[in-house]
Amino acid sequence: MNFRIIGLSPEPFRHLFGLSDADLVRHNARRYVADNATGYPDRVEVRDAEPGESVLLVNYEHQPALTPYRASHAVFIREGAEQTYDRIGEIPPALSARLIGLRAFDADHMIVDADIADGSALEPLIRRLLAKPEVAYLHAHFAKRGCYAARIERA
């Protein structure tokens, strides 16, 4: 069984691109300039921002279903990101280089399983969780800070 990893659409964030820092604060967002190659993972392109690139830290509701698991958290969006990551059978470096928590949700958006793996060992865990018939999709989270990273589904 193959899998598909999908980043966020840039659409909900475009109105923030180019705003002043003061205006961003009014939208509960903050601008950072990446100062290293691995500290600012963009959730649209599912890649680390390169040093010098501008990223926005925003609150994103990654689990909007009306269940006890409804959730939002801070995520980085590279300012100006336009191309949503959407690949089959590929794990992007932003995931493969980190400890990742996977949460398996059923069709009612309830967690039915979860596990953690080093990014280099992520593919077998993805396949194991998606092989369960009750699993509808997975959410990947960066384990250290708990931030939403990407959606994973059957391809």
Task: Provide a descriptive summary of the structure in words.
The chain has helices spanning 21-26, 93-96, 122-130; strands at residues 3-6, 30-33, 41-42, 47-48, 54-63, 71-78, 86-88, 99-105, 111-118, 137-142, 147-154. The protein has 155 residues and is mainly β. The strands form 3 sheets. It has a 6-stranded antiparallel sheet with strand order 7-1-11-10-8-9, covered by helices on one side. The protein has a 3-stranded antiparallel sheet with strand order 2-5-6. A hairpin with a 7-residue loop joins strand 5 and strand 6. The mean pLDDT is 97.
Summarize the structure.
Helix content is 12%, strand content 40%. It is mainly β and 155 residues long.
Question: Which key terms come to mind for this protein?
Answer:
155 residues, mainly beta, 6-stranded antiparallel β-sheet, 3-stranded antiparallel β-sheet, 3 helices, 12% helix, globular
Q: Largest sheet, described in full?
A: 6 strands, antiparallel
Shape: globular
- Name the poorly predicted regions: none
Task: Assign a percent range to the helix content.
Answer: 10-25%
The overall number of domains is: 1
Strand content: 35-45%
Q: Strand-and-helix sequence, N→C?
A: EHEEEEEEHEEHEE
Total number of strands? 11
What is the rounded Rg?
Answer: 15 Å
Largest sheet strand order: 7-1-11-10-8-9
| Distance linking N and C termini | 8 Å
* Strand-pairing-aware structural class: mainly beta
Enumerate how many helices there are, as a single number.
Answer: 3
Query: What is the residue-averaged pLDDT?
Result: 97
